[in-house]
Amino acid sequence: MTEINEYKTGWRIIFLVLLLVALSGPWYFDRVHVPPAYPCSSGIRLDDDFCGLPGSGLWIVPFAFGGLFNVARELLVSSRDTGWPMILSGFLPLLILLPFPSTLFVMWRPENRRGQIVHMTLLGVAAVSTGLFLSLPSFSRLHWALWGPWFYLCLALSMLLLELLAFWEGDTPQHGDLKESDALAERPSNL
Fold first, then answer.
1. Which domain range does residue 147 map to?
2. Residue 44 near residue 52, CB atoms below 8 Å
3. In the chain, at which end, N or C, are there fewer CB atoms within 10 A of the end residue's CB?
């Protein structure tokens, strides 16, 4: 067994802790109106009339469930065409949070190959969702300096790579790991 498979639980726990660190980091700027004549005392100047205070990415947790409720309400009650932007804005925060339950599941059931495939798929979906969040038009030139979503994206991609390596190494038997049926097939038959 290689080091990747041997220490899977340990690096998955480290991954979850680092994901929480990335989520608690700054993900957006809360815009505060400050006239140009006054300096930004606790933030940075976003444009002529606004300063920005960095906000934590932990807002994703309540927004994920509130966004789903709002999308469902709009789809059921509203007579206007909601469109994909409304639906995507409701599901995007939920997609970003998917690695948490999937990592806990594969830690609980480590030998479930189907669960590992679903986990790797959800890591990819979370990476793409974070990339979509970073490409939103509301991200100005200063928003690219926020480290929370960038760190989250790097973590999701690196975890996906580690999970792929662990999955592929789990498929191939190592030296001395032959199954009993393989050992019987190698014995010459005495007929």
1. 3-170
2. yes
3. C
Number of domains in the chain: 1
- Contact indicator for 58, 41 with CB cutoff of 8 Å: no
pLDDT single digits (tens) 94-104? 888 889 999 99
In a domain, 176, yes or no: no
Tens digit of each residue's pLDDT (9 = 90 or more) over 73-83: 777 776 666 66
Residue 183 within a domain: no
Q: Is 190 helix (H, G, I), strand (E, B) or coil?
A: coil
Count of alpha carbons within 13 Å of 174, Cβ hemisphere only? 8
Q: Does 175 reside within a domain?
A: no
Q: Are 57 and 25 in contact (CB under 8 A)?
A: yes
Run of H or E including 191 = none
